[in-house]
Every structure is written in C-alpha cells, then in structure tokens.
Design brief:
The chain is an alpha+beta fold. 41% of the residues lie in helices and 19% in strands. It has two domains: 13-181, Lambda Exonuclease, Chain A; 183-228. The chain is built from seven helices and nine strands, in the order βαααββββββαββααα. The longest helix has 23 residues, at 200-222. The radius of gyration is 22 Å and the shape is globular. The relative contact order is 0.16.
C-alpha cells in the first residue's frame, strides 16, 4: 500500500478548507465527511441556536472600549495550514510599549464548556491564522458560551498548537481521500443534526448482517461435500 504523501508546505487559495471543519472533524470524522465531502447538512435546535449566536456576534461595526479595539467578522486564513474562516470577534488590546496591538480572538458557542478539545482547536486555528497574517504573537483567546453567558479563557500552549496543526493535516487527508468513514453509534450522535442522514444504528445493523452472512457462507464452504 502506498504511503499518504505529506501535505504541501503551503496551500493555494483554492485548497483552503473551513476553520469550522476542524471542529466537525474532532467531534466526528463521519460528520465532517458528510458535510465537507458529500455536501450534506441539516438543522436542529442546537445548530439554529448556534447560528443565531454567531449572527449576534457579527452584528454592528468595529468599536473601541477602554483601549481595546473590537473587530467583528474578520476573514482569516493560513496558507501554511490550508484553512480559512471568519472570526466572531477579535479584540486588539493596546500595548503600553507602543508595539502592535495583541489580537485576542473570541469564539461564540451555544451551550456549556465541553470536556473535549474541538472548540479549543477551532479557536487556536483562528489564532494561528492571525499570527500568520499579522506577524504577531497571539498567546490567548476566549470561548464565550451562551448557556452560562461567560468567557472561558484559552491559552494557546504548545500542546494545543500541536493538536491544532495535526487536526489540519488530518482534515486535508480526509477530504483528499474522498471517503466517508463508516457510522459508529455513540452517545453524542443524539445531539448531531445529521443523525437522520447518517443513520448510525441502521448502518451498524447492516454491517452486522453482512458479517453474519459472510460467516455463514464461510462455514458452509468449509463443510465436507458428499452424503452421509
């Protein structure tokens, strides 16, 4: 089997994939493939609430508060990682030493903080895009969750940066493969808007039926021929 070729050191504009796809990938590779390979999408209450929260975050124009300049809906990209997206909010915090203001990305999410890293990776990807574009360090950002209505600060340490870069490589490999991973029913499936498109339980039953049929056929093939 041929090894997967390494990703290019820089991507072209046409090769850029959505930053949001990183969150899809880490939540579920099959969901990511259904959306970004097969072009499928469906709404549920959770996605509608999330979309509304993003729209509210993008409302209005730039403003300045207490030395912090607030930008909304910035288009960002990284040709090194091959990703592109639009930020909810980026706060540019003025520095006392007169150097360039430090960007502080803020991503709005519905619900509560999560145990997994999908949201943090998406935010870190925004930071890496800002660093590449502005040639400035972005040490931290925040996730604003709609349920508790408070920020969770995220430090972009080495572990999170490495996880984000690895996710970008995996995303490009998945899209390049043009293959949708098989369905596996998990507890998180009940929250997915693509549940009725993915049909994980039906897919698992079909796989089990195919396995049983193969096992029966193999058993029959091994039986000796002839009468008693």
């Amino acid at each position: 089997m041929n090894a997967t070729p390494p990703p290019p050191t820089t991507f072209s504009e046409d090769d850029l994939l959505p930053v949001s796809a990183l969150q899809h990938l880490l939540f579920c590779e099959r969901q990511c493939a259904l959306i970004h390979i097969e072009g499928l999408w469906a709404e549920n209450r959770l996605t509608v609430e999330g979309r509304y929260l993003h729209e509210k975050a993008h409302e209005g124009t730039g403003e300045t508060r207490a030395g912090v300049r607030i930008a909304r809906g910035l288009t960002i990209r990284s040709f090194r990682l091959g990703i592109v997206g639009v930020t909810d909010v980026v706060e540019f915090q003025e520095r006392e030493d007169g150097l360039a203001a430090t960007p502080f990305p803020v991503e709005y999410k519905r619900g509560r903080p999560k145990a997994h890293d999908a949201d943090r990776v998406q935010l870190c990807a925004q930071a890496l895009c800002l660093e590449e574009t502005l040639s400035v360090s972005v040490p931290a950002g925040a996730l604003f969750y709609g349920r508790p209505r408070r920020r969770e600060e995220v430090r972009f340490d080495g572990r999170l940066r490495a996880l984000t870069e690895d996710a970008a490589r995996r995303l490009h490999a998945l899209i390049a493969s043009r293959r949708t991973p098989p369905a596996v029913k998990e507890r998180k499936c009940d929250r997915c808007s693509l549940l009725h498109v993915c049909l994980p339980e039906a897919m698992e039953r079909a796989s089990a039926a195919r396995y049983f049929a193969r096992a029966v056929n193999a058993s029959l093939a091994e039986e000796p021929s002839g009468g008693p």
